[in-house]
Amino acid sequence: MTRQGPTPLFIVLEGGDGVGKTTHAALLSAWFSALGLPHVSTREPGGTPVGEAIREIVLAGPEMDMPAETELMLILGARAAFVRDVVRPALDEGKLVLADRFSLSTMAYQGYGRGLDLDDVRRAIEIATGGLVPDLYIVLDLPADEGEERQRDDGSTPDRIEAAGRSFRDSVREAYLELAATEGSVEVVSTRGSPDEVHSRIRARLAARFPATFPEPGVTEAGRAG
Description:
This protein is of the alpha/beta class.
């Protein structure tokens, strides 16, 4: 039987490149399905036809020269469609939304990383999202050099943003940690260890934040119902 949580939730996985967002989005989606939670798992920029087209431009190869302001506006253009066509309809239907990246990425990458004015970035985000704020950001944290090493081991080719260099990656990681220290809706989870270990940490954070929706570690649905 499908179990409906008390309220629809918007949960976002964040973090630098190589931290395992794709892996943990898949693990969480499988867990949500096992719990009987109707949900949408998606990514950003992307999730819509216009968003995927913009993603191809933003994440083009390192040879694509792009001003930071252009990068910001492209990402926010994709986000406006993402909010209108994916997130809000799913929430209105009572579904949980799990996204790979959202506005915290923009603050970390385009604000801190690219050096754009943070107040200007925040105002632009507000326009693109219509004020929509996730219920929780989960920042998957790993030192930049370890994330870069994981990507090399996977044999992946760096995209335009990933190829920005170690200093940029370090700035992004520091930005996420700084934002997490000042924002109440952000949890930081270390991704050192096996995927199963990290997944257990994420589940524990979700259970602590939203006990009406997620079971505590080691507690089965039957146990909660009884």
